[in-house]
Amino acid sequence: MAMGAPVVPPFLVVRNISKAFGGAKALRNASLDIIAGEVHGLVGANGAGKSTMIRILAGLNHPDQGSIEIDGHTVGIETAHCATAFGMSFIHQELAFVPGMTVLQNIMLGVPKRSRFGLTDWAAIARDVEPIARRVGITASLNANVKGLSTAENWLINICRALVRKSRLIVMDEPTASLSAAESEKLFAIIKDLSASGVAVLYVSHRLDEILKLCDRVSVLRDGNSVAEFTRAGLTRKALVEAIVGSAHVGNDSRPEYAPQTHEIVLRVQNLTRLPKVRGVSFELRHGEVLGIGGLVGAGRSELVRLIYGADRADSGSMTFRGKPYAPKSPQAAVAAGLGLVPEERRTEGLFLTKSVAFNLGLVNLDKLVLGRRVPLLSRKSQSSLARETMKLLSIKTASVDSPVGRLSGGNQQKVVIGRWLQRAPHILILDEPTRGVDIGARAEIHRQIRELAAAGMAVLVISSEPDELPDLCDRVLVMAEGLIVREMSGASISRSAIVEASYGERSH
Amino acid sequence: MVSGAIDREDDQMSDASTYNRRLTPRAKAGLGIFARYATILGLLAMIVAFSILSPKAFSTLGNFTNVLNQASLAMIIAGGLTLAVVVGELDLSIGFAASLHGILVTGFIVHDKLPIPLAILIVLVLGALIGLVNGFIVTKMKVNSVIATLGVGTIITGLAFAYSAGVPIVAGVPEAFLQLSLGRWLFGIPNNIVVMVFVLGILWVLVERTSIGQEIQAVGGNPAASRLAGINVDRIKTLGFVISGICAALTGILLASRLGSGTTSAADSYLLTAFAAVFLGSATLRDGEFHVLGTLVGALIIAFGFNGLNIFGAPTFSQYVFQGAILIIAVGLSSLGRSLAES
User: Fold this and answer.
1) What is the pLDDT of residue A96?
2) How far is A200 from chain B (nearest CA, A)?
3) Which of A62, A441, A456, A485 is the most buried (most CB within 10 A)?
4) pLDDT at B276 over 80
């Protein structure tokens, strides 16, 4: 062990765990050990398995293989309650709060409370909590309503709650994502203080500068594997990025060279803004091109797409679609204009899980499935034959077109969401994370289909957080960071490492 | 509990994973089949049991026709409610609305001397209008449909009192209007049954066999996905309320005709019956999905149940117990079906 053989076993040891969701392996062989009182960094690209690791520690997912030890004893973390009992607290980016309650009530949420004569003794609790609250830097009165408090103060309340519970490990997921620089500095001081008092912190972040500054040790995950562990001595930015990105990606397959000048511009986006996530984005999209948008989760990519698709309204900026001004008021308007969207969350935003495959495929093609323009009666025959045609095109595997789509595998479900748009042939097809949670075979088929659509003249916009996906698929890639396009690359200059580097680019403020 | 979004995801998954972990696939399939056919088996078992216990009073063509005739009004209002729940909302205003419509139609005919067809037409349009108001409040003002329709229903009750001053309109109801419900104009089949079959037939075709029906099912199944697929979710939801409102009006009209009077609160109790029918129906043949045919089965179960209780002279209290219990069982079966389908 890097810090010298510890006399006592580490607080937490995660040994060789793996976890798969459907066909997709989120963790393959991941290990992690956390010593009492250390600040331990956990880094990795999107989809490397960080979230799954945290969810397993929190008792929300259960590993398929491997073991977890706490204080040297093998344990099973069955529920969130177990995780708390083992002395672990989790602070997530989106904090859970009860807005109408006081600071003190929020701190004590879910914590056993002292009572007198059967009534909660808030005065005694306040006396106990007060010093802890001051220690973590809560300046607001414990009796203040949490409604007016800032995100930073909410973080402090969560840290305080963890200490009141006597947590020995606090897991912080992207703690500074919505904090100002000054607030972040305060948080760092508190983390140092926690560490000094023997509380370990697992610090999960994309922000390498913070990792470099704070952490005693850093574990790196890549594609579900533990690929590196650094101690403070060997920690450099360059080494971290290399470990996150991995070996240089092998060159693109030979696909026909794309010649942009021969294609018409279908969508022009100018200075599109919707604060805080999209801050003045401009680009052009041409017929027949596959344009990728890379960047980290939270960079504003999905929010940008929602603006283009009419799901949200822009604060400012403009768009032209096929030469005409375009400002969709709703997705309905976008679909009518000739756009299609394959959303990020297929189960919640894409599919009707209890409905049949034919129903799911037919939904945006209803005008083609009726007996006549003035006869809105549905032709079940057309519906089935359209479904069968699409299934053949995308090789969707299902027992029948009448099977509920929820019974299909992740890859086949994703093909259904994509296949819905094929018959409609929109001018622009937007795919948000088209192969998330999809096995390798289905992924190749989906990629092939996307290329074919582009070859037929469709403009395709692909968002992906999978490091290899955009280089494989795209003619051109835009990288977004903090709501801005920070890099554009095309053709042979698109590479996994260039995208990841640009994603982690120095922050502008 | 840990904080944040991790929690919420977990809550959504907990149902499915509980079933996944505790039941073998075979047990799950078996339970699914049971849930799907339990209502139909229940209906048949009830008919058989009553027939054996009381062959002379229960299992006669006359009694069956009578039960169906009695149940027709509940079936029509429940059919309309089915549309509201298929689009994912609840409509609690229907019973109150039907009461108001009964008063209005008799008032228009007796006091205002309007021709019967015109009076009926006006009331049906008013029914649609109430649905439109419900839809507007739910989709545009973003008021939860339970609260919205309860509020509208209460206001409607107030309007009914304002119009009738609480006094039933009895005198001067023309025989022609009574014949609307009492007559047997088609092959000697009671008119109520004919109207019911006609209405439920239309509703079934609308939901199951038209393009707009696909959108109706989509909106109820997953509003977020429907919106992203380019469906006007607000319009479809409003349509559900409008159809529910029209069916409530029709029930109110037929009830006024059957009673020969317009009485405040006459149709209020149809609300519970309709809900029980709709939820029993959602557990029928499909896994917790609301559908018109299911509602028909649900309404039959309730109708035969009440009929049996009456024939055996069961005390009044037991009828309340029956109705309350059947509502709870219905919703229980419905959510069992749904959680099995999702796991």
Assistant:
1) 65
2) 17
3) A485
4) yes
| CA distances from residue B99 to A83, B90, B269, B296 in whole angstroms, order as listed | 56, 18, 10, 22
Q: How confident is the model at residue B193 (pLDDT cuts 50, 70, 90)?
A: very high
Report which DSSP code applies to A451: H
Class of domain A12-245: alpha beta
Nearest CA in chain B to A332: B230
Chain B neighbors of A160, CB-CB under 8 A = none
Structural domain total, chain B: 1
pLDDT over 60 at B13, yes or no: no
Q: Is the pLDDT of residue A184 over 60?
A: yes
On chain A, the residues whose CB falls within 8 A of the CB of B28 are none
Beta-bridged to residue B189, according to DSSP, are B186
Here the CATH number for the domain that contains residue B187 is 1.10.3470
CA angle B209, B214, B216 (to 5 degrees): 115
Quote the CA–CA distance of B223 and A349 in Å, as a whole number.
Answer: 8
DSSP A176-221: TTT--HHHHHHHHHHHHHHHHTT-EEEEE-S-HHHHHHH-SEEEEE
**B11 at A interface, C-beta within 8 A:** no
Distance CA B198, CA B200 (A): 6
Q: Is B3–A158 a contact, with Cβ atoms under 8 angstroms apart?
A: yes
Residue A460 has pLDDT above 90, yes or no: yes
Asked if residue B127 is part of any domain, the answer here is yes
- pLDDT band of residue B240 (cuts 50, 70, 90) is very high
Please report whether residue B21 resides in a domain: no
Nearest C-alpha of chain A: how many angstroms from B234?
A: 11
**Cα(A315)–Cα(A318) distance, integer angstroms:** 10
Question: What number is the ipTM of this complex?
Answer: 0.81
A351 has pLDDT over 90: yes
- Lowest model confidence (mean pLDDT) among A6-15, A482-491, B90-99, B185-194: A6-15
Does B285 fall in a domain? yes
CB contact under 8 A, B222 and A330: no
Flag whether residue B22 sits within 8 Å of chain A, measured between CB atoms: no
CA dihedral A460, A464, A466, A472 (to 10 degrees): 20
Chain B residue closest to A170 (CA)?
Answer: B2
Res. A408 pLDDT band, cuts 50 70 90: confident
Q: For residue A354, give the nearest of B210, B212, B287 by CB distance.
A: B287
For residue A439, the distance in angstroms to the closest alpha carbon of chain B comes to 21
Q: Higher confidence at residue B239 or residue B309?
A: B239
- Residue B135 pLDDT more than 80? yes
Give ranges for CATH 3.40.50.300 in chain A. 12-245, 265-338+426-509
pLDDT at B270 over 80: yes
Contact A33, A10 (CB under 8 A): yes
Which of chain A's residues have a Cβ under 8 Å away from the Cβ of B2?
A: 58, 80, 83-84, 89-90, 92
Amino acid at A40: H
| pLDDT band (50, 70, 90) for residue B4 | very low
Contact across the interface for A83 and B3, Cβ inside 8 Å: no
On whether residue B18 sits in a domain, the answer given is no
Q: Which of A261-265, A338-342, B258-262 has the highest mean pLDDT?
A: A338-342
Select the CATH number that applies to the domain covering A265-338+426-509 from these four: 3.40.50.300, 3.40.50.970, 3.55.50.30, 3.40.1700.10.
Answer: 3.40.50.300
CA distance A317 to A406: 39
Closest CA in chain B for residue A335: B230
**Interacting residues of B44 by C-beta distance below 8 A, sequence separation 6+:** none
Scanning B188-207 for CB atoms below 8 A from A yields: 205
Range of the domain at B42: 37-342
Q: Is the pLDDT assigned to residue A6 strictly greater than 60?
A: no
Put simply, the answer to whether B214 touches A366 (Cβ < 8 Å) is: yes
- Chain A hits for B9, Cβ within 8 Å: 60
- pLDDT value at residue B5: 34
